[in-house]
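Action item from last meeting closed. Structure (416 res):
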């Protein structure tokens, strides 16, 4: 009898991770299910489903005759994800905790626990994504402990593992995996890579996983769940009221409870206003939030952004980009938006400029710009700088036109 490989599967109590565990078992692996607790429900006034989720994950493991473990990353999540989230909001940016959660918790702490503590040959998750590796190649990878040397051994020849979109493009989750390390990706299996969500539900129904099938899909902040965002954030940050100000004429439209409760592009709930207004800019020095009267107002449209040091999943930028410093590809900064053609410029410090083929709505500092070449997810960088809006450019053009008209009629006088 051949060697039976040990796979540690992250179990959330949902349908995707439950079916992933089932498929791994059917492939003949020895599978261990692990539920991660990353948020302390005792700190919350709201309803927290983590205990129910844990029970649901345990039930699936019992049905599949799999060992079950529970591990807590409450402290790590607080320090490495949630504290960062609060700092970003206070700075006027809009973070993406789901990307950071995958980077720091699932594909760092959980990965190390799976291979070191539990002795797994590989880890698995229920993400809709795939890699360039066959399963057998995953088991040939060796674990490299972090931090032994400052730099990776330059004589070690490694063919990078690529991250690709899964078969179900509507459920594709590579956006949320765009910051994970090459080492973790090399040892990860995605059992749902070739399946659609509908087919996954069908497998779950046939397996008798009724208790996970009837659950509503989670759409809230990673591990915190669906809560009223304004109420939630005001439990951790002091209210900092300020004015809603019209971007068009500077008129005060109403008051908000803090710029960190709002993000660019969202509808501003302004008391006494019949028509909808949308957030287009924030000034954290004055607590002013600028609003515009239409959802696609020119003050929300721009085509240029800059990221911080870009995280390349293959560890190095594409050869084309290294050679010419420029590359045509696609990007998105919101997992629900379609992929958009763009030109990428690589800077000496590892950051990138991204210029979209047409102006895009609500590019937002703090969000991640994720690059794609075909169906390959290349990686991501946090947006730190935005180019001018269409509104600013139009206003500048109008001023220039006014100035040229004025100077043709009036002689300039020296300033005394």
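Sequence:
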């Amino acid at each position: 009898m051949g060697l039976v490989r040990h796979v540690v599967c992250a179990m959330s109590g949902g349908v995707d991770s439950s079916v992933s565990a089932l498929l791994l078992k059917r492939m003949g692996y020895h599978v261990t299910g692990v539920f991660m607790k990353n948020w302390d429900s005792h700190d919350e006034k709201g309803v927290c489903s983590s205990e129910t989720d844990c029970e649901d994950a345990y039930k699936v493991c019992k049905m599949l005759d799999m060992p079950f473990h529970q591990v807590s990353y409450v402290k790590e999540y607080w320090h490495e994800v949630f504290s960062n989230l609060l700092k970003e909001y206070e700075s006027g940016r809009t973070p993406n905790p789901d990307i950071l959660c995958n980077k720091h918790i699932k594909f760092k702490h959980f990965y190390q626990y799976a291979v070191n503590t539990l002795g797994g040959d590989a880890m698995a998750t229920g993400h809709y994504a795939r890699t360039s590796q066959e399963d057998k190649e995953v088991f040939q990878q060796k674990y490299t402990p972090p931090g032994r040397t400052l730099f990776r051994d330059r004589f070690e020849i490694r063919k990078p593992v690529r991250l690709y979109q899964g078969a179900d493009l509507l459920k594709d989750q590579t956006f949320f995996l765009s910051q994970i390390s090459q080492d973790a990706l090399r040892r990860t299996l995605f059992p749902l890579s070739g399946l659609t969500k509908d087919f996954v539900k069908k497998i779950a129904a046939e397996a008798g996983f009724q208790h996970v099938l009837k659950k509503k899909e989670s759409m809230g902040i990673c591990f915190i769940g669906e809560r009223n965002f304004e109420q939630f954030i005001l439990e951790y940050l002091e209210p900092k009221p300020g004015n809603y100000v019209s971007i068009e004429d500077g008129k005060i439209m109403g008051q908000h409870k803090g710029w960190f409760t709002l993000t660019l592009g969202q509808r501003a709930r302004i008391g006494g206003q019949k028509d909808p207004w949308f957030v287009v800019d924030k000034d954290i020095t004055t607590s002013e939030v600028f609003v515009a009267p239409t959802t696609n107002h020119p003050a929300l449209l721009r085509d240029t952004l800059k990221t911080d040091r870009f995280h390349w999943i293959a560890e190095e930028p594409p050869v084309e980009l290294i050679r010419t410093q420029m590359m045509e590809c696609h990007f998105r900064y919101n997992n629900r938006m379609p992929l958009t053609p763009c030109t990428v410029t690589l800077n000496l410090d590892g950051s990138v400029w991204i210029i979209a083929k047409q102006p895009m709505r609500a590019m937002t500092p703090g969000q991640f710009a994720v690059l794609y070449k075909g169906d390959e997810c290349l990686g991501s960088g946090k947006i730190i700088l935005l180019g001018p809006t269409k509104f600013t450019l139009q206003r500048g053009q109008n001023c220039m036109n006014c100035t040229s008209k004025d100077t043709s009629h009036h002689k300039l006088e020296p300033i005394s």
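Note appended to the action item: Residues 407-416 have pLDDT under 50 and may be disordered.
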